[in-house]
Specification:
Blueprint (H helix, E strand, L loop, with lengths): L6 E5 L3 H13 L3 E5 L2 H10 L4 E5 L7 H11 L5 E5 L14 E4 L4 H12 L6 H14 L4
Parallel strand pairs: 1-2, 1-3, 3-4, 4-5
Helix pairs in contact: 2-3
Length: 142
């Protein structure tokens, strides 16, 4: 019997980015739910089984950081990756997310981060952060 596919909720107001991320994730073996705004994303989270969330920071209306905070209140165990086209975000914008990635990073970094999150983040936070920093600056380690 094959292992069930992890269900990833992707939220982005850019249809092109949402569809390209969906295709990437589906090719990597994930099932993908998509939403184009935070309120639809929250509804999906409450009404569907979701294993992880990939969330855009710059959403119309309520920002991704605020949506992430609402999601953590209702399902604190669900890992959330926050994406942004902008440079580093202030720490207070990242307090409700498990990882922050730039949209300009290679897709392999997103896939690696997602895989680590779904595997339970076996390392303490600092070492996860350091690994992400190394990936971002030097490419993914073997």
């Amino acid at each position: 019997m094959s292992r069930p596919k992890a269900i990833i909720l992707c939220i982005d107001d850019s249809w092109d980015q949402l569809i390209s991320r969906k295709l990437l994730l589906e090719r990597s073996g994930y099932k993908v739910l998509e939403a184009t705004d935070g309120s639809d994303g929250l509804r999906f989270l409450l009404s569907h089984p979701v294993d992880a969330v990939i969330l855009d920071y710059q959403l119309p209306g309520t920002g991704g950081d605020v949506i992430a905070a609402h999601m953590k209140l209702v399902k604190p165990h669900i890992p959330i990756i926050l994406l942004s086209s902008y440079g580093p975000l202030p720490k207070n914008k990242l307090k409700s997310v498990d990882a922050f990635l730039s949209k300009s990073q290679p897709s392999r970094v997103l896939l690696s981060t997602l895989r680590q999150m779904l595997n339970g983040w076996s390392k303490p936070f600092f070492y996860r952060w350091l690994d992400q920093w190394k990936d971002r600056n030097y490419g993914v380690r073997p």
